[in-house]
Design brief:
Number of strands: 5
Distance between the termini: 25 Å
Strand content: 15-25%
Number of domains: 1
Mean pLDDT: 84
Radius of gyration: 15 Å
Order of helices and strands: HEHEHEHEEH
CATH architecture: 3-Layer(aba) Sandwich
Shape: globular
Strand order of the largest sheet: 2-1-3-4-5
CATH class: Alpha Beta
Structural class: alpha/beta
CATH topology: Rossmann fold
CATH superfamily: Response regulator
Number of helices: 5
Length: 132
């Protein structure tokens, strides 16, 4: 039987984008959608909407800026997501490295800067979802 590269390809990661700014949500969703390497299945601007979108769409990855509208709300969301959906992967984004927040270190996450290239966003999502 000949090798079929399509059958060996991992599934396209399904992503929910969470950011308090609707313009940023839309920009990130458009940017990720253009690459063809990930599928944006939902967007949310606050904790409640994020939980509803994750429940509704069952994504592989949530791309989230933890300032919703403040870090405490974002940290609560991230902890809640990790408890409710242990297989869900979380990628943090922001203008500064959020890994220094002690309250976020208890939950496995990765990070990509909002100033990153489209390739960096896709790589962070794919690496979180489908590590080699």
């Amino acid at each position: 039987m000949p090798f079929n590269p399509r059958s060996a390809a991992p599934p396209t990661p399904r992503v929910v984008v969470v950011d308090a700014d609707r313009r940023v949500q839309q920009s990130l969703a458009d940017l990720l959608g253009l690459t063809g390497d990930v599928a944006v299945v939902g967007r949310a601007g606050d904790v409640r909407a994020a939980l509803q979108e994750v429940e509704r769409t069952q994504p592989d990855v949530v791309l989230v800026d933890p300032r919703l509208p403040d870090v405490e709300a974002g940290v609560a969301l991230i902890a809640g997501l990790a408890r409710a959906w242990p297989s869900l992967r979380i990628v943090l984004t922001g203008w500064g490295d959020t890994e220094g927040h002690a309250s976020l270190s208890a939950t496995p996450t990765s990070y990509v800067s909002k100033g990153g290239s489209p390739e960096q966003f896709v790589d962070a999502i794919v690496d979180a979802c489908c590590p080699v």
